[in-house]
What we know:
42% of the residues lie in helices and 20% in strands. It is built from ten helices and ten strands.
Amino acid sequence: xxxxxxxxxxxxxxxxxxxxxxxxxxxxxxxxxxxxxxxxxxxxxxxxxxxxxxxxxxxxxxxxxxxxxxxxxxxxxxxxxxxxxxxxxxxxxxxxxxxxxxxxxxxxxxxxxxxxxxxxxxxxxxxxxxxxxxxxxxxxxxxxxxxxxxxxxxxxxxxxxxxxxxxxxxxxxxxxxxxxxxxxxxxxxxxxxxxxxxxxxxxxxxxxxxxxxxxxxxxxxxxxxxxxxxxxxxxxxxxxxxxxxxxxxxxxxxxxxxxxxxxxxxxxxxxxxxxxxxxxxxxxxxxxxxxxxxxxxxxxxxxxxxx
Length: 307
């Protein structure tokens, strides 16, 4: 009687043993291109490494997988049979790995990208409320504006719809953008009391920003004011213009969500109120969000905080 370790070479057990995965990968790439050099480039190996892996595979299987002629290689009939099976198997593995990674992304912390000023002045001050309500949801907040790609590790993004995004992105509206002029309470005398004229008195300094250069014109149009000369300082970012208004340097166009805490605390006033400017903030995702679960909870919370 023979034990398993004493079994003869060439037994049914040996026939079922698979060659190394690395050798099969090298063979599959070489077969796809029928070129060892191109396979080497794809797999970040040398031409010699591909050649040796294929030769070892041929020796192990006992068949020629390539016909070598004039420095070129061509698949043999046995090679074509094997590459069909290897390609199918690798595609199944890629699909399974992709599903596992997608599942892992659902279980790991999410990355939520949010426009910087909205993140600083609206989302972060309210975030402890979300964490208290949903202690089992781990979200990493990052600042980002404008174009982005979900391939960069972003799971969800909050953006204002003032630029085009791919049709493949799933869009969930959060709240409309409402804007109005704001300043420090002791500077409220800068506002004009006259109806139908310019909203500010002559000489009142307007605060502008490079990121929304037409904010004053868009507000005047939405609020029903005639065009007027809105001279004043130009700052680099929207956040800076709001901080300048808090410092008493002038009157800024303040989106409601970005100044609502300052209005509530009395740091800023908005004598002319707020109007919708036609844009809105949205939650973007790579695919439609499930109707229940953690992401649905986050969406509902964001909408509730935006009221």
